[in-house]
C-alpha cells in the first residue's frame, strides 16, 4: 500500500491525499465514506486514465494520515478541499462523493460553486429533509449519534481495534449483513482494496469516523434544496445502508438532478458505475 502525499494547512494540520488517473487530465476531487479513505479511489485509476481525468482523493480529518480537526463542521470541508486545490495549482474541479462523502461534495457545491465543475454522488447519505423515507433501523442509528453521548465513539472503537489487530475479523465484520450484490464485490478482484480502504479509516484510531457520522447524519448547515449546480446521483435498489427511497427523495429535493438507479447495493453501485460517475463530475 503506497503512502499518501501530504500538505500542511494554514492551521498546521496535515492533509493527506493520493492521485489516480491522468496527471494532466480534468481534475476531479473524490471524497470517501464515513468508513473509507483515499484508497477507495484507486479502483478508478484505469477508468480515469482512459477518460483524461485526474482524480485527487483526500483523506478527511482523522482518516488515513490526515490530522483530526476538533469541532469540524460539514462546511469546513470546502476550505480544506480548496486549500489542496490551490496547492496543486487547480482552479476548478469536479466533485464525487461516495456514501458519507456525498454531503461533503454537496458542501463544496454550496460553498464554492464557482470552483466546482460537476457534482456526482454515489450511494450518498441524504439530508435530514428526506428522513421521512428512511429505514427505521438506520434512522434510529443516526438519531443515536445525536442524542446518545459517546455512541459514535463506542460504535467505531471495536472496528478500529480489529483493523489494527485482526484484519480477517475486520473483513468479516465489514461484510456481515451485506446484500449479495456487495458480497460479490468483496469476494471479487476489488475486495482486498475495499477492505484496505476501510481499515485505513482507522490508521489514527476511531476519532475521525466517530466525528464524521453525526456530521453527515444530522443538519448539514446548508439547504441542499437550493444547490446551485446540477447533481447526478447513482444508487442501488438493493442498498441496505442508504435505502433507495432516500435517494428518490433526495433527487426530488434537488432543483436540478438526474437519478440513475441500478440493481446494485451500496459498494457495488460505485464499483459497477465508476466510469459514468467520473464522466458526470468532469463535465
In short:
With 283 residues, the protein is an alpha/beta fold.
Structural class: alpha/beta
What ranges have pLDDT less than 50 throughout 5 or more consecutive residues? Answer: none
Helix share of residues? Answer: 40-55%
**What fraction strand?**
15-25%
Count of helical stretches:
12
Span from first to last CA?
Answer: 31 Å
- In the sheet with the most strands, the strands line up as 1-2-4-3-5-6-7-8
- Output the radius of gyration: 17 Å
Given the C-alpha coordinates, what overall shape results? globular
Summed over residues and divided by their number, the pLDDT gives a mean of 94
Q: Give me the count of strands.
A: 8
- As an assembly, this protein is single chain
Give the H and E element order: EEEHEHEHEHHHHHHEHEHH
Largest sheet: 8 strands, mixed
Descriptive key words:
283 residues, alpha/beta, 8 strands
Blueprint (SSEs and pairs):
Elements: E1 5-8, E2 14-21, E3 26-31, H1 45-51, E4 53-58, H2 77-87, E5 93-98, H3 101-111, E6 116-122, H4 136-147, H5 151-165, H6 167-175, H7 180-187, H8 191-200, H9 207-217, E7 231-236, H10 244-253, E8 257-262, H11 266-271, H12 274-281
Parallel strand pairs: 3-4, 3-5, 5-6, 6-7, 7-8
Antiparallel strand pairs: 1-2, 2-4
Amino acid at each position: 500500500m503506497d503512502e499518501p502525499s501530504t500538505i500542511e494547512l494554514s492551521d498546521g494540520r496535515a492533509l493527506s491525499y493520493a492521485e489516480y488517473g491522468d496527471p494532466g487530465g480534468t481534475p476531479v476531487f473524490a471524497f470517501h465514506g464515513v468508513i473509507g479513505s483515499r484508497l477507495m479511489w484507486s479502483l478508478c485509476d484505469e477508468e480515469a486514465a482512459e477518460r483524461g481525468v485526474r482524480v485527487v482523493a483526500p483523506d478527511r480529518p482523522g482518516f488515513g494520515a490526515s490530522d483530526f480537526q476538533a469541532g469540524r463542521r460539514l462546511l469546513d470541508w470546502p476550505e480544506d478541499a480548496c486549500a489542496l486545490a490551490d496547492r496543486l495549482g487547480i482552479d476548478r474541479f469536479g466533485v464525487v462523493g461516495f456514501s458519507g462523502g456525498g454531503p461533503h461534495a454537496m458542501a463544496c457545491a454550496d460553498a464554492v460553486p464557482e470552483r466546482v465543475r460537476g457534482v456526482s454522488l454515489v450511494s450518498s447519505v441524504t439530508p435530514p429533509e428526506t428522513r421521512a423515507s428512511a429505514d427505521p433501523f438506520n434512522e434510529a442509528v443516526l438519531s443515536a449519534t445525536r442524542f446518545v453521548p459517546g455512541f459514535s465513539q463506542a460504535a467505531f472503537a471495536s472496528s478500529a481495534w480489529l483493523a489494527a489487530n485482526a484484519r480477517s475479523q475486520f473483513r468479516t465484520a465489514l461484510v456481515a449483513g451485506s446484500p449479495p450484490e456487495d458480497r460479490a464485490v468483496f469476494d471479487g478482484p476489488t475486495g482486498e482494496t475495499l477492505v484496505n480502504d476501510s481499515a485505513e479509516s482507522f490508521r489514527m484510531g476511531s476519532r475521525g469516523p466517530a466525528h464524521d457520522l453525526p456530521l453527515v447524519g444530522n443538519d448539514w448547515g446548508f439547504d441542499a434544496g437550493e444547490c446551485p449546480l446540477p447533481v447526478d446521483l447513482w444508487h442501488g435498489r438493493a442498498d441496505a445502508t442508504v435505502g433507495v427511497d432516500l435517494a428518490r427523495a433526495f433527487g426530488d429535493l434537488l432543483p436540478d438532478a438526474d437519478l440513475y438507479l441500478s440493481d446494485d447495493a451500496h459498494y457495488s453501485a460505485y464499483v459497477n458505475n465508476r466510469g459514468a460517475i467520473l464522466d458526470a463530475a468532469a463535465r
